[in-house]
Write a structure and sequence with these properties.
With about 425 residues, the protein is α/β, with parallel strands linked by helices. The chain has 3 domains: about 5-135 and about 305-340, NAD(P)-binding Rossmann-like Domain (Rossmann fold, 3-Layer(aba) Sandwich); about 140-300, 2-Layer Sandwich (Dihydrodipicolinate Reductase, domain 2), CATH 3.30.360; about 350-430, ACT domain (Alpha-Beta Plaits), CATH 3.30.70. The chain has helices at about 15-25, 25-35, 50, 65-70, 85-95, 105-120, 140-145, 160-170, 175-185, 195, 200-215, 235-240, 305-320, 365-375, 405-420; strands at about 5-10, 35-45, 60, 75-80, 100, 125, 150-155, 225, 245-255, 260-270, 280-290, 290-300, 350-360, 380-385, 395-400, 405, 425-430. Strand 5 (about 100), helix 6 (about 105-120) and strand 6 (about 125) form a beta-alpha-beta unit. Helix 1 (about 15-25) packs across helix 13 (about 305-320) and helix 5 packs parallel to helix 6 (about 105-120). The longest helix is centred in the first third of the chain and has 18 residues, at about 105-120. The termini are far apart. The mean pLDDT is about 95.
C-alpha cells in the first residue's frame, strides 16, 4: 500500500520535531499505522531547515496555500499558530477534502465549532491532541479512554510557563518579575508574556477540555480568566505555612446550575499529587463517576513532546482512512447533534474557599472589624495568621483562610473591608480548592 503523504505548515520548533520523529521512528510508525507516512511538502520561510533536519528531498515552499492545495497531500499538519492565516488554511484544507492535524489551541478554542462543523460536512477529520498539554494524551483519554464515565470535574496545570514561575517563587523565594525575566531568557515565555501569565493560553486549553468532558460547544469567551502577575512571594510563603501550594489551575466542574469554567491562581493542599507538579511540567486531574480520580502528567511543551502528540494524531487519521466516516470518533467526544446547551455558570455563583491577605493598621480592634463584616455575610474563618511588622511598624499583614463561600458574597465582603480606614491597599484574594 502506498505511503500517506503529509504536508507541514511550519518547520519551526514543533514542525521540526514532527519531521524528526516521523523520520526516526518511520518503521515503528508504519507498523502501528498499517502504512508508511512521509513528510512530502512543507511551508516555511527558512528553506535551509530541510537540510538541517536531514530531509534533502522534502519539497519546500514559502506559500502555505501551495501545500494545502497540493493534490498529493492527504493530511495537512498546521503548526504556524495564531488565528489567521491558520483558520483560512485549515478551512481550505477541509474544503479540499484533506484531513487536518493542528497543535493550535487558540484556533480550536475560538474557531473550533465552525471548523468541526465544516469537517463533518466534508467527511474529514480535524485532530488536535497537541493543542492541550503538549505530549500528554489528555484529549484521547477524555474522549475515548474515559468514554464510559460521566465526568464530574477536571483541574489542570496546563501552562508550563506559569507553573515554572510559581515553582521558582516557592522554592527559592524569588519575586514574580525576576522569575518571569528568567523564563523569557530560557525561552519558556514570549517577549510579550501576557497569554501565559494572565491565563489566556490556559483558558483556550480549558475550554477545549470542558467541551470534551461535558459535551458542550466550545465557549472560551465565557471562561473566567485570572492571571498570576499579582501573586507575591509573601503569598507563596503564607500559603505554604497554611499547608498549601499555589498553582495556576484551569478548573471545569459540572453543577446543577451548569458548567463552571475558570482559570485562576488556586491554593491546593500539599498532600494532593497535582500540588507537587513543578517546573514547566503539566498535569490534568480528572474525576469520573465510574473511575474516580485519574491524573495525567508530562511535558506540556517542547519540540518532540508536542511532536509525539502530533504524530499520534497523524497515525490515527491514517488508520481511519478506510473507516466509514459515520463511525469515527467525534471531534468533541459526543456526536455533533448531541452537544447540549448547558450554561456556563457565572463566576459570582461559584462556591469556593478563599485565602485573603490584607495590610492593616497595627492596633487593637482591627481583626474584630474585619471578622464582623465576614460574619455578617456568614463567611466563617478556618485559619488565621497575623505577621508582625518588619519594615513598617505601623502596619501588619493579616492572613485569613475561609471555609467555602459564594463568590459574590466574598466579593461584596472584600469591597466592604477595603473601605475600612484601618485597611491599606487592595486585599489579595486566592481561591482554595481541596480537589477531593
Amino acid at each position: 500500500m502506498n505511503p500517506v503523504k503529509i504536508g507541514l505548515l511550519g518547520l519551526g520548533t514543533v514542525g521540526g520535531g514532527t519531521a524528526t520523529v516521523l523520520k526516526r521512528n518511520a518503521e515503528e510508525i508504519a507498523r502501528r499505522a498499517g502504512r508508511g507516512i512521509i513528510v512530502d511538502y512543507a511551508a516555511t520561510l527558512e528553506p535551509a531547515r530541510a537540510e538541517e533536519l536531514g530531509l534533502p528531498d522534502l519539497r519546500i515552499t514559502e506559500e502555505a496555500f501551495d501545500v494545502v492545495n497540493d493534490p498529493d497531500i492527504s493530511i495537512v499538519v498546521e503548526l504556524i499558530g495564531g488565528y489567521s492565516p491558520a483558520k483560512e488554511l485549515v478551512l481550505q484544507a477541509i474544503e479540499n477534502g484533506k484531513h487536518v492535524v493542528t497543535a493550535n489551541k487558540a484556533l480550536i478554542a475560538v474557531h473550533g465549532n465552525e471548523i468541526f462543523a465544516r469537517a463533518q460536512e466534508k467527511g474529514v477529520i480535524v485532530a488536535f491532541e497537541a493543542a492541550v498539554a503538549g505530549g500528554i494524551p489528555i484529549i484521547k483519554a477524555l474522549r475515548e479512554g474515559l468514554a464510559a464515565n460521566k465526568i464530574e470535574w477536571l483541574a489542570g496545570i496546563i501552562n508550563g510557563t506559569g507553573n515554572f514561575i510559581l515553582t521558582e517563587m516557592r522554592d527559592k523565594g524569588r519575586a514574580f518579575d525576576d522569575v518571569l525575566k528568567e523564563a523569557q531568557e530560557l525561552g519558556y515565555a514570549e517577549a510579550d508574556p501576557t497569554f501565559d501569565v494572565e491565563g489566556i493560553d490556559a483558558a483556550h486549553k480549558l475550554s477545549i477540555l470542558s467541551s470534551i468532558a461535558f459535551g458542550i460547544p466550545l465557549q472560551v469567551e465565557k471562561t473566567y480568566t485570572e492571571g498570576i502577575s499579582k501573586i507575591s512571594r509573601e503569598d507563596v510563603t503564607y500559603a505554604s505555612e497554611l499547608g498549601y501550594n499555589i498553582k495556576h489551575l484551569g478548573i471545569a466542574r459540572r453543577t446543577e446550575e451548569g458548567i463552571e469554567q475558570r482559570v485562576h491562581p488556586t491554593m491546593i493542599p500539599k498532600t494532593r499529587l497535582i500540588a507537587n507538579v513543578n517546573g514547566v511540567m503539566n498535569a490534568v486531574l480528572v474525576n469520573g463517576d465510574a473511575v474516580g480520580h485519574t491524573l495525567y502528567y508530562g511535558a506540556g511543551a517542547g519540540d518532540e513532546p508536542t511532536a509525539s502528540a502530533v504524530v499520534a494524531d497523524v497515525i490515527d487519521i491514517v488508520r481511519a482512512l478506510t473507516t466509514d466516516p459515520e463511525n469515527r470518533v467525534p471531534h468533541l467526544a459526543f456526536q455533533p447533534d448531541e452537544l447540549t446547551d448547558t450554561p456556563i455558570v457565572l463566576m459570582d455563583s461559584i462556591e469556593t474557599a478563599f485565602y485573603l491577605r490584607m495590610r492593616a493598621v497595627n492596633h487593637a480592634g482591627v481583626l474584630a472589624e474585619v471578622t464582623k463584616i465576614l460574619g455578617d455575610r456568614s463567611i466563617s474563618i478556618e485559619a488565621f495568621i497575623q505577621k508582625e511588622p518588619t519594615e513598617d511598624v505601623d502596619k501588619a499583614d493579616i492572613i485569613l483562610l475561609t471555609h467555602r463561600v459564594n463568590e459574590g458574597d466574598m466579593n461584596a465582603a472584600i469591597k466592604e473591608i477595603e473601605a475600612l480606614d484601618v485597611i491599606t491597599g487592595e486585599i489579595m484574594r486566592i481561591r482554595v480548592e481541596s480537589l477531593k
